[in-house]
Amino acid sequence: MHTKLGSSKKMVENLAFSAILSNKEQRNPDFYNWNRVKVRYCDGSSFTGDVKTVNPATNLHFRGARVWLAVMQELLAKGMRNAENAVLSGCSAGGLASLMHCDSFRALLPMGTNVKCLSDAGFFLNTRDVSGAQYIKSYFNDVVTLHGSAKNLPRSCTSRLTPAMCFFPQYVARQIRTPVFVLNAAYDSWQIKNILAPRAADPEGKWQSCQLDIKNCQRSQLKVMQDFRLEFLSAVIGLGRSASRGMFIDSCYTHCQTETQTSWFWQDSPILNRTTIAKAVGDWVYDRNLFQKIDCPYPCNPTCHHRVFTPQDAPPI
What we know:
This protein is an alpha/beta fold.
């Protein structure tokens, strides 16, 4: 409500388009001449919420699903219904949204349209934190309950599992019928901060220095992070083999790689199998090549751009 993540009143009016949204061929060779739309995010539930009542104390509306539908209807009216190709992408909560809404997005467009979905840093893992608690499971349960998200989550999942579990891609992605590309860092910095070692599990702040800069991590902390990577890879591989699902899992300490030019497509961008993220995604979208690669463990990839944070950066949840 008081930040750009809670109200459009707090958002800047003009936003620079870079990386996957760039209109410059040398920076975005496969998508520079596409119609590109950024859907601003302010609902807190990856556009799944739909609560009829309004909180009288805060005047908060939990209606992300209605926002999503209104935006899609406007885009269809503006010409999206005539698209030959359409890619629904997003990073972080937007990456989760691109999975949750993937098949319904496909259903909005004509049968002949080539539709695909790209999830960047949205594959949040259901695992225990360093204290042994199921913190992120409880957190997602609170989100789903507060926003009334259950009815807007994929029925292929909610028919088998609780709504909170269906906020985790590992239980949803296998049933998605539309082609999906999973782009994620195996040591995703947001997940290390908020899933593996959230403040509630680390009250003394023993993980803070490690979270700010992976080079500061102690050997014991790196061991925990390597185990997290293995569990993350198990969840991704557990989706099963697919002839249409792309995959780029690098071993960088970062979060969101499609919206930053240096990680998307630049002279020193991260590479897997001699391939940049932009090339891997472009080949998959245009059916030139199905990219499915998993990086070796940290610190093996010298092309990684590891994020370095300051204590003033967004604190763990």
